[in-house]
Amino acid sequence: MGALAAQVSAVIPCKDEADRIAATVRAVAALPQVGRVVVVDDGSTDDTSRVAREAGADVVRHDRNRGKAAALETGAARVRELERADGQADAVAPVRSALLFVDGDLQETAANLGVLTQAVLDGSADMTIATLPAQITAGGGRGLVVNLARGGIQHLTGFTAVQPLSGMRCVGPRAFDAATPLARGWGVETALTVDVLRAGLTVLEVPCELQHRVSGSDWRGQLHRAGQYRDVWLALVARGWRPWHRG
Ligand SMILES: Nc1nc2c(ncn2[C@@H]2O[C@H](COP(=O)(O)OP(=O)(O)O)[C@@H](O)[C@H]2O)c(=O)[nH]1
Ligand SMILES: [Mg+2]
Predict the structure, then answer these.
(1) What are phi and psi of 208, to 5 degrees?
(2) What would the pLDDT profile of 38-61 be if each residue is shown by its tens digit?
(3) What residues make up the domain containing 51?
(4) Ligand 1 atom, smallest distance to 213 CA
(5) How many domains does the chain have?
């Protein structure tokens, strides 16, 4: 593994992505900046773990579903364990790679994630966030969760996030520390942005040509958005947001 390749470790949290995870893992592993790919299978009932392993990922599995934030924490812990095993880090001066958080459903388009790493590796940002183009598959939501997250982040930090819920992020060690412990479940992205900015660190949104499966307007999609709304709300309130106090 070259010096450059050691600089970024990818963490892919996912559930029931057996149809898409192999393509995602291969695309991420092929990025020259990425040294290792850890997939966290969050209690899938399909073949996600096996497929991811066969595609070359290091796979950690939660026996039961624990949510996206818990999966990211498991993945980050696994990365540090692998770094220690490689002798890259020692107790005195640990060398910690940046983490690249990647949703499991991007498939081949994950090959375009390289643009996220540059600003973190050259030190001009502590965390980058991918903004996605219009998606080929239409979404079934009306932007309620996005507006909640954007408004809350704005209120707490002054930062206007174009796509506050985007899960594709390159997170430097200082940014990860500032956001740990992560907010639970689907609140993780919103809270990451708030916590990193409040620590005085730099956040940058970077356009990235990605396509993912967008949750639809069926009951499953609505349930997903209800859970997202709850978790984003809880993450914001835990950080001092009090929307009911506004006139
Ligand atoms: N850790 C974890 N990840 C999940 C869970 N459900 C979905 N995911 C992953 O989170 C990412 C986004 O989920 P997705 O269903 O595509 O929702 P959307 O993109 O917000 O419409 C994908 O990589 C999923 O595999 C879960 O329960 N736990
Ligand atoms: Mg998706």
Answers:
(1) -145, 130
(2) 999 999 999 999 999 999 999 999
(3) 5-138+166-215
(4) 16
(5) 1
Assigned domain for 159 exists: no
Q: How far is the CA of 2 from the centre of ligand 1 (A)?
A: 32
Q: CB under 8 Å to 4, separation ≥6 — which residues? A: 32, 33
CA pair distance 55, 88, nearest whole angstrom: 24
Nearest 5 degrees, angle CA 44-CA 96-CA 17?
Answer: 15
The tokens describing 175, both together, are: 């940014």
Does the pLDDT value for residue 206 go beyond 80?
Answer: yes
Residue 243 token pair: 């929307």
| Ligand 1 atom with least separation from CA of 102 | 23
Q: Output the six-digit token pair for 221.
A: 């999609």
Residue found under tokens 């900046």:
33
Q: What is the pLDDT of residues 157-203, one digit of tens each?
A: 999 999 999 999 999 999 999 999 999 999 999 999 999 999 999 99
Is 223 a member of any domain?
Answer: no
For position 210, which CATH number holds? 3.90.550.10
**Cα-to-centroid distance, 15 and ligand 1 (Å):** 6
Q: Which ligand 1 atom minimizes the distance to the CA of 139? A: 21
125 part of a folded domain: yes
The CA 35 to ligand 2 mean position distance, Å, reads 24
Residue 149 lies in a domain: no
Identify the helix (H) or strand (E) that includes residue 219.
helix 219-238
Q: Is 71 in the pocket of ligand 1 (CB under 6 A)?
A: yes
